[in-house]
């Protein structure tokens, strides 16, 4: 939690009226106790707590929330003021990587794959356990480590342009780079977690922005792997052909993939 965030919460508390509903106790990412005029109620959120870093790490992050005024919005969602802006408390928890919603929206996907909050301590395979649909999560994680590894983990905001890798800080920054490439008449670049090639597979996406969404990027990669398997009837070739049907590059790619599987098995 940033100093700006903590300062904003303190300022909001100072401005709160004496009878305002405030957060009295933080129990877990989906359980808060709110005090209002001497009466206490439970504030519960849907979703799954992200405990990869442990409960104590979350409680340390959430400490500045204690005493923060809670206000209901028009749709009944509890909101807090962060950095001068009103935000749903549940959205804050999702965006900060402590709560996994049932439906992974853009904020949840970013928190998961950028490894915010509780996700910071999760395994390399963990994002793919959440994002996968048809292909084993470890297989997807091994390929992603081949394709977009940054500091030991797959990074969602990655481009490879004509063989040169670029890692961006945000989805928006990556999207700006993609728009520039397309405006320059180029398609020789790979996008996202699974480094899906724009020249060959752009028809699989609704837009370049859509191609960057981790869940969409993984779904397209799964489609490609499943198609490779149907063509070759070989799981090994399906992975090798993900990079290239040319035997030599395919063998090298597969060797790196196997090393990554070994690292995943060791919890590295």
How would you describe the overall organization of this protein?
- The chain has two domains: 3-120, OB fold (Dihydrolipoamide Acetyltransferase, E2P) (Beta Barrel); 126-265, Lysozyme (Orthogonal Bundle), CATH 1.10.530.
- It has helices at residues 3-15, 55-62, 89-95, 106-114, 126-131, 137-148, 171-183, 198-201, 208-212, 214-232, 235-243, 247-265, and strands at 22-28, 31-36, 39-44, 48-49, 71-72, 78-82, 85-88, 99-100, 149-150, 153-154, 158-161, 164-167, 189-191, 196-197.
- The protein contains twelve helices and 14 strands.
- The protein has a four-stranded antiparallel beta sheet. The protein has a three-stranded antiparallel beta sheet with strand order 1-2-3.
- The model is unreliable at 5-18 (pLDDT under 50).
- A hairpin with a 5-residue loop joins β5 (71-72) and β6 (78-82).
- 46% of the residues lie in helices and 19% in strands.
- The protein has 268 residues and is α+β, with helices and mostly antiparallel strands.
Fold blueprint:
Layout: H1 3-15, E1 22-28, E2 31-36, E3 39-44, E4 48-49, H2 55-62, E5 71-72, E6 78-82, E7 85-88, H3 89-95, E8 99-100, H4 106-114, H5 126-131, H6 137-148, E9 149-150, E10 153-154, E11 158-161, E12 164-167, H7 171-183, E13 189-191, E14 196-197, H8 198-201, H9 208-212, H10 214-232, H11 235-243, H12 247-265
Antiparallel strand pairs: 1-2, 2-3, 4-8, 5-6, 6-7, 9-10, 11-12, 11-13, 13-14
Helix pairs in contact: 6-12, 10-11, 11-12
Q: SS-based structural class?
A: alpha+beta
Strand portion? 15-25%
Quickly count the domains: 2
Q: Which class of the largest domain in CATH terms?
A: Mainly Alpha
- Give me the count of strands: 14
Oligomer description: single chain
As for the CATH topology of the largest domain, it is: Lysozyme
Mean pLDDT: 90
CATH architecture of the largest domain: Orthogonal Bundle
Report the helical percentage.
Answer: 40-55%
Could you spell the SSE succession in H and E letters? Answer: HEEEEHEEEHEHHHEEEEHEEHHHHH
Radius of gyration: 22 Å
Give the CA-based shape. Answer: elongated
Count of DSSP-assigned helices: 12
Question: Cα distance, first to last residue?
Answer: 26 Å
Q: Describe the sheet with the most strands.
A: 4 strands, antiparallel
Low-confidence stretches: 5-18
Side by side, the strands of the main sheet go 12-11-13-14
């Amino acid at each position: 939690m940033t100093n700006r965030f903590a300062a904003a919460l303190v300022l909001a508390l100072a401005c709160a009226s004496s009878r305002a509903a405030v957060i009295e106790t933080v129990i877990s990412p989906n359980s808060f106790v709110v005090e209002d005029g001497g009466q206490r109620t439970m504030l519960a959120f849907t979703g799954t707590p992200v405990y990869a870093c442990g409960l104590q790490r979350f409680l340390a992050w959430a400490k500045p929330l204690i005493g923060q005024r809670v206000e209901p919005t028009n749709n009944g969602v509890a909101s807090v003021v962060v950095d001068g802006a009103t935000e749903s408390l549940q959205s804050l928890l999702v965006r900060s990587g402590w709560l996994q919603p049932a439906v992974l929206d853009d904020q949840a996907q970013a928190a998961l794959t950028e490894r915010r909050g509780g996700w910071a301590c999760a395994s390399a395979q963990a994002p793919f356990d959440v994002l996968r649909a048809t292909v084993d999560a470890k297989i997807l994680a091994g390929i992603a480590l081949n394709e977009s590894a940054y500091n030991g983990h797959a990074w969602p905001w990655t481009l490879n342009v004509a063989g040169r890798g670029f890692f961006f800080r945000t989805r928006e920054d990556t999207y700006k780079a993609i728009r520039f490439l397309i405006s320059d008449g180029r398609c020789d670049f790979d996008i996202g977690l699974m480094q899906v090639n724009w020249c060959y597979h752009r028809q699989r996406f609704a837009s370049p922005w859509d191609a960057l969404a981790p869940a969409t990027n993984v779904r397209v990669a799964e489609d490609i792997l499943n198609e490779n398997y149907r063509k070759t009837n070989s799981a090994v070739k399906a992975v090798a052909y993900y990079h290239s049907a040319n035997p030599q590059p395919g063998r090298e790619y597969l060797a790196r993939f196997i090393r990554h599987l070994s690292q995943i098995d060791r919890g590295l």
